[in-house]
Design goal:
The complex is a heterotrimer of chains A (363), B (235) and C (233). Chain B is mainly α. Chain B has nine helices and no strands. In chain C, 44% of the residues are buried. Classes of the chains: A alpha/beta (363), B mainly alpha (235), C mainly alpha (233). Chains in contact: A-C, B-C. The interface between B and C is large, with 44 and 45 residues.
């Protein structure tokens, strides 16, 4: 969909190129994240795709067409663009802001209004906001409007320059989730720039790690990059906790689950205590096969010969097989035990144990 | 061409260079009244402006001063003070002119000094207080030097406006370079009118240049001279 | 009224400061002068605005021209009005054209500075967003930069207008002048009639300036509805 070939950008008055002979190919419907330390030329690269910065040499094609062969403003009307400061027009209402590109393209009012309403719904912006001005909205709402505005003319390609850099961490996480959800429906080709490696891992189908001068150090899926950093630069950039970062990419269903300390109601107190001792945790579950009703501690057994009348406590945290190992690790740590129960609906699947999770970190 | 010749002849005529109606004494009158008016305005405007700016209070007064200053034409002030001056037995000319020029110079000096001091980076002021400076020391050692580019620019702009407006004094029977223009108009002597115009323009631009140069020398190194402050009326 | 020197002196001292009867008798003339004053001001500021917009566009398009433009308009602004009229009268005579050349020249520096500052003040990220979405430079200027610079531009128009209203009084010297006519003529009477005329001209001129200033402020509020409704940024 987008192809950069030997693209170089040297800014006037500097000798070293900001981007040096960068080649990159981005597939249709793919989210590619450009990430790297400041000065790595990631934003310059992004802006060359819509010609806000003109490349010094090399070629860029979008959908097979050389971008230098068309008028810059025509090119830009066909590419969605979202920036960190959002850049909403303060003197236009939200509806007018969203309708920016349709109005540049000369759509009629009926079609524009319909599209604006549709987009407001898409980004979950209540219609009452449409007649307000950007100054009256919160940061998160403005960011949604920014995305809606970029999508207005249904461009196949979306460029996002640090789109969530200016909002607080909680809002940022929500907006990231919303973007992924939106992308699962829209299947746009998205190029996103960030300096935040966690954001890159979370959002990217593929991640391009750049070093100073726009050198491409590694270009691969987040999982592969975390598993096999191409060189020291990438490993350093990922940080020493890259093993833990990788956990967020692996679903629980990928690891072996332990059957766990599960006992039937018929079991005796002695049997229960010996199972607990074997697992070296202070609790065990009551159940039969996949049907687990709850759990108990050694203290709960006081005055009982068998488990027949022991009161079962319900699980506070129930992991699902599609949850990530990162979430499993969180659950294990917060429950102060070495394992967390995994359920598929009501069906008990087993325990995710620290041993099994850390096996993935070591690899 | 003939007109230009007449103009040159006017400037070369020794009669125009001597006596109370000669160029030197007219220039002197012009400078005299301008200096007195500007210095008086600075003396009256600076202390309250510095103090209010230091206290970061009185923004309303600053805005009101500049607006009123713009709305009342100097010409009108001069004309209004004339009958008052006569009634008070102060005579024609000097006092009405001085008062009008004083009133012209006051608002820009007040408002720019006030905003200049008020807009000094609060972090610097806090740093000064943190080192144990008193209010007076903060004002003298931090705020006034930091605001000095703005204050000096305001003084320059006011002085130039005063010099440019002083010719109107001729309308209320005071001297200065305005005499040539006003009298020239009266007797329809275009040569004299133009000669007066040239002298007044030269004196105004000269004031601007000289004070601009002074400003560059006086402003503490490290602080750049600010862009001119646009202050409005000269008339 | 008795004649004779001593009687005249006494009569002058007893005379009231303002002769209301003069105002009553000259209402029509005062109104006509006020209208003339308004017309002179509107033409001056209108023409000044058009010229300033043109020069500002040049200054914005070719940055190197900004310094010379402010230099020349700065000199025009510094040249005393009387001197400027002195230069012009030999060429254009005691005409409205002479008055307007002077009045327009004084608006230029104020207007150009405010227009350029206003346009420059539009945040870079807004322009980047606009360019990124495919605005052409011309459309961006008209649709984004100009509206967003409006508050600063109108602030300049307010200063220019109020200044011009004051300056118009001086054009009385070259036979124009609107309300300045009464101020100038009042100077020729050393009596209450004179004071009354000066006061009438001054008060009306100041009132005009105040009304124009408030009116323009209202216009700004009307044209910039987005600036009013704003929660925490």
């Amino acid at each position: 969909m987008i192809r950069l070939t030997e693209v170089t950008k040297t800014f006037p008055g500097t000798s070293k190129p900001a981007v040096d002979k960068l080649s990159l190919s981005i597939g249709e419907g793919e989210v590619v994240v450009l990430v790297g330390p400041s000065g790595c030329g990631k934003t310059t690269t992004l802006k060359m795709i819509n010609r806000l910065i003109e490349p010094t040499s090399g070629s860029i094609t979008v959908a097979g067409q050389d971008i230098l062969s068309m008028q810059a403003h025509e090119l830009r009307r066909g590419i969605g663009y979202v920036i960190q400061q959002i850049g909403l027009f303060p003197h236009k209402t939200i509806a007018e802001n969203i309708a920016t590109v349709p109005s540049l393209l000369g759509w009629d009012k009926v079609r524009t209004d319909e599209r604006v309403a549709e987009l407001a719904q898409l980004v979950e912006l209540s219609p009452e906001f449409l007649d307000r001005y950007p100054g009256e909205l919160s940061g998160g709402q403005r960011q949604r409007v920014g995305v809606a505005r970029a999508l207005a003319a249904d461009p196949p390609v979306l460029l996002m320059d640090e789109p969530f850099g200016a909002v607080d961490p909680i809002v940022r996480a929500n907006l990231q989730d919303e973007l992924l959800e939106l992308q699962s429906r829209l299947k746009k080709t998205i190029v996103l720039v960030t300096h935040d490696i966690d954001e890159a891992i979370k959002l990217g189908d593929r991640v391009a790690i750049l070093s100073e001068g726009g050198h491409l150090e590694q270009y691969d899926s987040p999982g592969e990059i975390l598993r096999n950093p191409a060189n020291e630069f990438v490993a350093d950039f990922l940080g020493s906790d890259r093993g833990i970062k990788r956990l967020s990419l692996i679903p629980i269903s990928e690891i072996k689950l332990d059957p766990g300390p599960v006992l039937s109601r018929r079991a005796t107190r002695e049997e229960a205590l010996s199972v607990m001792a074997r697992y070296d945790i202070g609790w065990a579950a009551i159940g039969d096969g996949a049907d687990v009703e709850g759990w108990f501690t050694a203290d709960d057994l006081e005055g009982h010969k068998t488990l027949r009348d022991v009161k079962a406590r319900s699980f506070q945290i129930k992991l699902k097989p599609e949850d990530s190992l990162r979430e499993a690790l969180d659950a294990v740590i917060t429950s102060h035990t070495a394992a967390a129960a995994v359920f598929d609906g009501d069906r008990y699947l087993g325990m995710a144990t620290v041993d099994e999770i850390s096996r993935e970190i070591v690899q | 061409m003939e007109f230009l010749g007449d103009l040159v002849a006017w400037f070369l005529d020794p009669e125009n260079w001597t006596g109370p109606a000669g160029i030197p004494s007219r220039v002197w009158e012009h400078i005299q009244i301008s200096v007195v008016a500007t210095v008086a305005a600075a003396a009256i405007a600076l202390p309250p402006a510095l103090w209010l700016g230091h206290r970061r209070r009185g923004g309303f007064a600053a805005v009101a001063a500049i607006n009123i200053g713009r709305a009342i034409p100097s010409f009108a002030i001069m004309a209004l003070f004339l009958p008052i001056s006569i009634r008070l037995g102060l005579g024609l000319g000097f006092w009405p002119t001085l008062l009008a020029l004083f009133a012209l110079a006051l608002p820009p000096i007040f408002t720019n000094t006030y905003t200049g001091v008020r807009d000094v980076d609060p972090a610097l002021v806090e740093a000064g207080r943190g080192m144990g400076m008193t209010d007076g020391e903060v004002l003298r050692k931090i705020e006034a030097p930091m605001a000095s580019p703005v204050i000096l620019a305001a003084l320059r702009v006011s002085a130039v406006q005063v010099v440019a407006t002083a010719p109107l004094a001729a309308l209320v029977a005071w001297g200065g370079l305005g005499r040539y223009i006003v009298d020239g108009f009266a007797v329809q002597d275009n040569v004299r009118v133009l000669a007066g115009g040239i002298l007044v323009a030269l004196l105004s631009i000269g004031t601007e240049i000289v004070l601009g140069a002074v400003e560059k020398r006086v402003v503490p190194q490290g602080l750049t001279t600010t862009e001119d402050v646009v202050t409005g009326a000269h008339a | 009224m008795t004649t004779g020197t001593s009687a005249f002196t006494i009569a002058q001292a007893d005379e009231p400061f303002i002769r209301w009867d003069w105002i009553g008798r000259n209402l029509d003339d005062l109104w006509a002068a006020t209208q003339e004053h308004i017309v002179l001001t509107v033409i001056a500021v209108g023409v000044g605005l058009v010229v300033s917009l043109g020069l500002s566009i040049i200054a914005l398009r070719w940055r190197k021209t900004y310094t010379p433009i402010t230099w020349v308009t700065g000199i025009l602004y510094t040249i005393p009005s009387l001197a400027l009229f002195a230069f012009l009268v030999p060429i254009t005579g005691l005409t409205m054209l002479t008055a307007q050349i002077g009045l327009v020249s004084y608006t230029l520096l104020i207007l150009i500075r405010n227009i350029v500052a206003g346009i420059d003040g539009v945040p870079a990220h807004i322009l980047e967003a606009a360019r990124g979405m495919g605005y052409t430079p011309r459309r961006m200027f008209l649709d984004i930069q100009l509206p967003l610079a409006l508050p600063v531009i109108i602030a300049g128009i307010r200063i220019a207008t109020v200044t011009t209203i004051g300056l118009v009084t001086i054009t009385a010297l070259i036979g124009q002048g609107g309300l300045g006519f009464f101020i100038l003529r009042g100077l020729q009477f050393f009596s209450a009639i004179g004071t009354t005329q000066i006061l009438a001209g001054t008060v009306l001129s100041v009132a005009l300036a105040v009304v124009a200033d408030i009116g323009l402020l209202g216009l700004e509020k009307l044209l910039t509805p987005w600036a009013r409704r704003r929660v925490t940024a």
